[in-house]
# Entry
Amino acid sequence: MQARNILVVDKDIITRKFLKQTLEKRGHQVLQAELGKEGLVFAWRDKPDVIVVDPDLPDINSELFIQKIRQDARTASTPVIALSTNLEPEFAKKCIIQGYTLYFTKETEALPKLLAQIENIGKAKTTPLFNKDAGGKVLVFLSGKGGVGVSSLVTNIATTIKEYKKDAKVVLMDMVLPLGSLATRVGYQESINITTLADLPLEELTPEFMSATLPQISGWKFYLLAGSPTPEAANLLQWKKIPHIINILRKEFDYIVVDLGRSLSRTSLHIIQAAHLITLVLGTEKESARLGKAVQEYLLGLNIDERKLYPIINRAVGHEGLTKAEAEQIFGSEIKGTIPFMGAKFTLANDQAESAVRKYPRDTGSMMLIDISKDMLETVEKLK
Ligand SMILES: Nc1ncnc2c1ncn2[C@@H]1O[C@H](COP(=O)(O)OP(=O)(O)O)[C@@H](O)[C@H]1O
Ligand SMILES: [Mg+2]
# Structure
């Protein structure tokens, strides 16, 4: 673990002492401030790796504090964690919108997570593998039918890409509306998601901001842009900002892996237009091959380059069902790969919010997923 310089801004001396002790025991250096203004001066002078601040400051308000931090080049992209006694979700949301990176409440149960975030957040950036000017590659996954395993595949394929291209930065984006599922699947419980991000003014949505703000999911190795947590949040989604968000993500990440589920909405079409590879997931029933074909025809009708289409079969529902040859007949073109039924292992890993590929790397299913991931990346490179 890397030692970090942490600035703690808190009017409460007990909290300050406690954090100082706990963090120093773990090898970090801690600088403390009691007042907001003092905190700002220390932040600009010492450029800490992370700032932890109780937004209830004695001298200035929490919004002014974060504005000053974000407007100054020395601290514009420094992760700032709010550590607050305010349990109101509305207040937490307000802080995130104002520019705080994460929000924690002062509760003993939150401590292990707070420590993990302090240590993970804003880690030294890896050197980019690819030419950033050209931008990262967008890999979208969709199906004609729900329940065929799109979400299970994106999470595992995003992890596999990261294992295979060690220095790449990978972000997984959940665009299934009106309700995303990836946050739950990978065990992410905080409040940053596509709706809260799209609420922010465009000028705040910079590549550095994305890196500092999006959570890194440690067991899975990717960054996550979580989906809509509720149908209400989906209704509030400022979908017109999605193309901008994708462009910004492309400046910071090498791969943007997107779960579109079976939604061919206005929003998902923008993303499909920007995609470098479109993986169409078919299930094992005739119906799913027919629906997949309908989606394919629709996309070709939009003038999408056929070479970007990457149809695969996922045997999510067991051993019976279509063979590859039968599916190809219905689908009308070559199926690029087949993921076998991974049975109880897959479900068990899912239930524990773990990656099946990482948990059972020698399983045939995992090996086939790894092969398919490599082939996808090669296909993208060839299309350049
Ligand atoms: N290859 C597979 N082998 C076994 N179970 C799978 C496989 N792919 C998906 N599943 C299971 O199928 C169910 C539906 O998968 P999910 O990823 O939620 O589908 P979708 O996102 O397309 O609706 C989940 O319970 C998942 O664990
Ligand atoms: Mg899904």
In short: The CA atoms of residues 348 and 356 lie 8 Å apart.
